[in-house]
Amino acid sequence: MTMNTLSRSRTLSPAGIVPWLLNLATRMLARSLNMPEPLVHHTGVFVFAHVQAVENRVGQTLSPSRLRRQLRNWRRRSAR
């Protein structure tokens, strides 16, 4: 008899646990909200995309060069 090579690949590693935990969290959230799992997953992706867009806009608004320009213009206007 030969030993099955699959038994060695079933060790606990962070790379293998993370997808399993995400799947478990999605299932638990879907069950608690009484929603289908795909809907919970796609809603999460949709929310992430909107949050990312807002962060990008805020990042552009608060960039150091833009703030420096606005401060310079504000000083010029107040000196008049």
List descriptors:
80 residues, mainly alpha, 4 helices, 0% strand, 81% helix, single chain
Looking at the chains present, what oligomeric state does this protein adopt?
single chain
Total count of helical runs of at least 4 residues: 4
What is the averaged pLDDT score?
A: 82
How much β-strand is present in the residues?
Answer: under 5%
Any idea what the shape is?
Answer: elongated
Based on helices, strands and strand pairing, what is the structural class? mainly alpha
Rg for CA atoms: 25 Å
Helix content: over 70%
Taken in chain order, the helices and strands follow as HHHH
Number of strands: 0
Q: Would you identify the regions where 5 or more consecutive residues have pLDDT less than 50?
A: none
End-to-end C-alpha gap = 92 Å
For the largest beta-sheet, the strand count, sense and barrel status come to: none
Task: Compose a concise summary of this entry.
The chain has about 80 residues and is an all-alpha fold. The protein has 4 helices and no strands. The chain has a domain at about 35-80.
Mind explaining what this structure looks like?
The protein has four helices and no strands. It is elongated. It has a domain at 37-80. It is mostly helical and 80 residues long.
